[in-house]
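#struct-pred

JT: dropping the chains for the assembly here, can someone run the whole complex?
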Amino acid sequence: MDKLIRVLVAKPGLDGHDRGAKVIARALRDAGMEVIYTGLRQTPEQIVSAAIQEDVDCVALSILSGAHNTLLPKVVELLEAENASDILVIGGGVIPTDDIPFLKEKGVKEIFTPGTPTQTTIDFIKANVAQ
Amino acid sequence: MDIEKRLLAGDKRAAARLISLLENKDQEALAILKRLYPKSGNAYVIGITGPPGAGKSTLTDKLTKALRKEGKTVGIIAVDPTSPFTGGAILGDRVRMNELSTDPGVFIRSMGARGHLGGISEATASAIKVLDIYGLDYIFVETVGVGQSEVDIVKNCDTTLMVMVPGLGDDIQAIKAGVMEIGDVFAVNKSDRDGAKRTAREIDMMLDYNKDALWRPPVKMVVASENQGVDELIKALHEHRDFMKSSDNFIKRRAQNAKNEVVELIKERIERTILDQSKREERLEHAAERIAKREIDPFSVVDDVVGKMNL
Ligand SMILES: Nc1nc2c(ncn2[C@@H]2O[C@H](COP(=O)(O)OP(=O)(O)OP(=O)(O)O)[C@@H](O)[C@H]2O)c(=O)[nH]1
Ligand SMILES: [Mg+2]
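RK: done, full complex below.
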């Protein structure tokens, strides 16, 4: 039996809504993935603990708050501390293109800015998860 | 270090990975489970079931926090048997349990129905064993109560908590058939809503039909979202555990569960073998054609297939 891809979808940061996270969660589900949805206002610590317990292949973070430069690298760092750097970390939401090189340098594998077709994200995950 | 040693050393990641491997029917993972089986059996397993949206996850969150205060460690397996058998799923029970995520004494795992051979109950049973060996004191298994699948799932449990809500009315009648019987403890959640007392009374009346049972399931009113009535409910769950453990009920129940499990595993293995063989050879199709033409009868074909089967 083929292994299903498991993805944790979370929305870190303090701002209010999770529409973007829900859109991506549904798109990944429709692409045949098992999505663990954890909802709003997640701390990096909560995200990483959940990712470990759920044994996901990928953590997809939706960020609108502007705190991406601290939150995303923090998730990568905490995963490393748990010996879980094989888990793919990707981000999406309102992230200025100027910040993308910094985030990638910090170990975020890809950033999907608004307007990116969800299929692009799906293809990226399928091509890059450790199998 | 290998995954088996890491699991025994209390490594969360090893436990998490082993559950995935077992979900995917990895033979090495199964061998590990066989070896470590004598180390399982210490966790107390509580099934939590009830209609969609009844507040099962919210209640599980509160029950877990109460047990943590007693110094107990807790595993939670949130199963969605309604997710499609093939394809993807969104598993959202963690949304109600976020505060537990970073508690080192808690382990939460979400499971979908996906293409589990032998069904979701078998995959759940494996996950329970892993968390049991990992060393948790209590394991909650949350599953939505709509039909046969959750009845199968709770066949893995020592105590089953049925979560109801006010105003189910006719639904209670419907649930009664097959599912009412499995509750050892009943909670009427959302008791901040109208009609909670009436619903509790209706459940009580229904339970009174079964007067000769040794254990009369208690019915507790709770408001999970406000953490009201949770201590009372924990007390009721403990009382059921004490009732089980004070007699041979406990071992009898576990033996009954084990019997179900073995039967399910046998069914699965036979099914898989037949499917494998019929895929490998075109024998079955060929035989079917001959049956249609009345050259041979279906009974003899079955004798033939089963006789040659290497289980
Ligand atoms: N009024 C009221 N609402 C509650 C109570 N407990 C939970 N809820 C709400 O009921 C909704 C569903 O709660 P969940 O805990 O997700 O219910 P569930 O049974 O786990 O749902 P599924 O897993 O989807 O079947 C949420 O919006 C909760 O906030 C309660 O005691 N009173
Ligand atoms: Mg739930």
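JT: nice. Residues 13 and 115 of chain A are 21 Å apart (CA to CA). The longest helix of chain A spans residues 68-81.
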